[in-house]
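Comment thread on ticket #2218

A.B. wrote:
> Attaching the input chain for the structure job we discussed in standup.
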Amino acid sequence: MGPTKDKERTLERNAIFGMLAFFALTLLIGTFCDEGLAHALFSPGNVPATFVTTLGIYPFFSAVVLFLGVVFERVLHGGMGKVGKVVACLVAAALALVVSFIGAAALVDGDCLGGIFPNLIRNLRKRGVTVTFLIHDLETMRYKDTSELPLMKRLRIYLEETRLIRTADYIICHNEKMKAYLVGQVLPEQSLIPLGIFDYLTAFDPEASDVHRERDGERNRVIIAGNLSPEKCVYLNELGNVDGVRFNLYGIGYQDLGQDNVTYMGSFLPDELVGELRGDFGLVWDGTSIETCSGNFGNYLRLNDPHKLSLYLTAGIPVVVWSEAAVADFVKAEHVGVTVSSLKDLGDVLANLSDDEYSTMQQNALRISRWTRSGHYLTTAVTKGLQ
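C.D. wrote:
> Ran it. Output below, let me know if you need it in another format.
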């Protein structure tokens, strides 16, 4: 037993020394994760230095987590008392978690050469390249109170949005309401360019097709397109309480609730959907109620441009939008639809529209369609950033 014990101790000692040597090496490499230190040691723009720095950040933090994992295992199977084991294991696990968070932050930190994407942007700007971001969605705007979100999601939002968005020269935001919000988040006003609405590139030409404008005399068919799951669109459960309106629904997640004024039309690919829409108006609404747009998704309409607005207008179909939505200003300015504060008012609003009023909305929708199909809005915004 003696020689065996001595052999085990020698192997254990060698393993510990080997781990410490690896740890020291990665610590040395990891030290170069700091941009200021790396530039002091190497000339700026040195490709090998950047490579070593980016590569070194992975083993540096991984080695610490691995080391803490070994400590956890040794304590768990060691001769320590039960209380001591619990305390030591909790400390090791907590430290490993903290180091993991720090490592994740280091990979996207603006002051860290390991932050590949932010540094790529910053290096492009140093070389005279104008960097422009186009906002599709921002979780920081969707959730007013991020403290209610899980910790990992809050961390992801901070790293992927809050810090990253400040690295661009220009940011194409959806509209003036979103621009005002972002200015309130300490972004320079001169860097923000409102888009207007999203373009919708498609080969479909609504002016060559009258299928979506078939009349039956009432002009009260309202289209709802998108994710129809009850969790996403809770207000769909109340459509039966909207008098004087018939709804044609398109999308995934539909559940038949037996509402007499609701017809499910199926689900289509985006390129196909624009030519399959049947109705007089397209609805831009979200949230938990037909009375108003509420909840996280409903309140988000105060700031964003829903893609379905572009879908309807590209199809040449006038729209119905919430009166407090950010796109309500666009709809009124371009005369492409109506705004309502509650869907319970929609039946009366549509019934009181004259033929001339509807015809004007339809012609304006076709005018906007020509622009969205040609990429007019994004082209205009990008051009402004380059001037």
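A.B. wrote:
> Thanks. Noting for the ticket: Residues 68 and 95 are 7 Å apart (CA to CA).
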